[in-house]
Amino acid sequence: MAAGAEGVAAVLTTPDGAEATDTRLSAGAHYRAGSTTKAFLATVVLQLVGEGRLSLADPVCEPLPGVVTGNGHDGCRVTLRQLLQHTSGLPDYTAVPGAFPVARSPESYRAHRFDHRDPAGLVAAALTRPPAFAPGTGFAYSNTNYLLAGMIVERVTGRSWRAEVTDRVIRPLGLTGTFLPGDDPALPAPYARGRETFPGGDRPTDTTLLNGTAAGAAGELVTTARDLNRFLTALLGGELLAPAELAAMRDTRPVPGAPGHGYGLGLAAAPLSCGGSYWHHDGTTLGFTGANGVTADGTRAVTVWTNGHDSADPARQARVEAAMRALVDHALCGD
Hints:
By secondary structure, this protein is α+β, with helices and mostly antiparallel strands. It contains 9 helices and 16 strands.
């Protein structure tokens, strides 16, 4: 909080049980986890790979013909692995004017917070911009990649990606505080109110209500800190993926500008101050910022989140995120 966060909740899970620490926020409160959703979706994709229903080498044009095309884009040159690892070169739809209006201003948020957003339309908006690079030749984080991955899951299984994540991950692990809300804009009790300071603003706006389809398979998840720790320990402990698929998930490439950091398939690696590294997938969304981490053996996990996000002051937001990552490091390195 000294770094400027609104309120903070943290939960540390160890082999001896869970130790919760909360400041101004309930450690059991629901919050929007943003891009942490990607780790859940990637887990389902890799389960389908293990079942032989998908291959990481599959080109996007096979399950989704004609979807990634035009303006220099060719879905037959983009593979499923490149989507999950952000090496596709596809532009991020959230940076396209009009595609993500809820993040532009308080007025735009209030006007669009209940809007349903179709993933195919968001992908089409992204593709109005040219590729960032040829597929497989660079790294650029893009939410568009995971919208497409969700669409592929639906095409292959015949069910929604939300149903697949729920039935394959959320329910088997008993994550009773975790769900994918879709068009339901409300958070269940107990919850913390999201507070977003929009670009150019000087005060936060209450952004608690939000139609999750604005983020979809790239960032829709609602969860709790305890549930997220359970997911992370199960994932790294081998409960959700066979050894080959878990190894593929942890096969990273360097993240430009972040020495020691790597991005795998919906899971990232970061160095620990005490030696070695940990695995995580942080997430931010309107009014919420989250950081998390789990040791390589899956025995120790921590989730930290705050009900504030500052798009008006990037330096302040960076301080908050650095403080959260430092707390994650301290918790994972502690005795």
